């Protein structure tokens, strides 16, 4: 898988390249975490993608919005555009927890040990 570093650097305030093999980047992580959370300059509006599920929700929403734009640009019906926008919104609702599919519920609770 190729990563577009230019996209990452233009899309996120903090991008840290690390190598566990070469023990590189750990100091940078510490510096960035201090800047983000201990300097008092953190901005809750910037957001953080915390896990793969959240990343997938965002990617799905973006893909649906792009498809909606493509459909609109190509003269398709507004119903088709609306379907794609609804799908984008559903992905964001899944991200925020406003809508939880059985798959998401299973994934979240698979990480917890619930005692009797």
User: What's the helix-strand series?
Assistant: HHHHH
Radius of gyration: 19 Å
* Number of helices in the DSSP assignment: 5
Whole-number total of structural domains:
2
- Helix content range: 55-70%
Mean pLDDT: 78
Structural class: mainly alpha
Q: Biggest β-sheet, characterized? A: none
Q: Which outline best applies?
A: extended
Distance between the termini: 43 Å
Proportion of β residues? under 5%
β-strand number: 0
Unreliable segments (pLDDT under 50, ≥5 consecutive)? none
Task: Describe this protein with a few key phrases.
5 helices, mainly alpha, 116 residues, extended, 2 domains
Question: What do you see in this structure?
Answer:
It is a single chain. With 116 residues, the protein is mainly alpha-helical. It has 2 domains: 5-38, no CATH class; 52-109, no CATH class. Helix content is 59%, strand content 0%. The protein contains 5 helices and no strands. The protein has helices at 5-11, 26-38, 52-73, 78-96, 102-109. Helix 3 packs antiparallel against helix 4 (78-96). The longest helix has 22 residues, at 52-73. The radius of gyration is 19 Å and the shape is extended. It starts with a helix and ends in a 7-residue tail after the last helix. The mean pLDDT is 78.
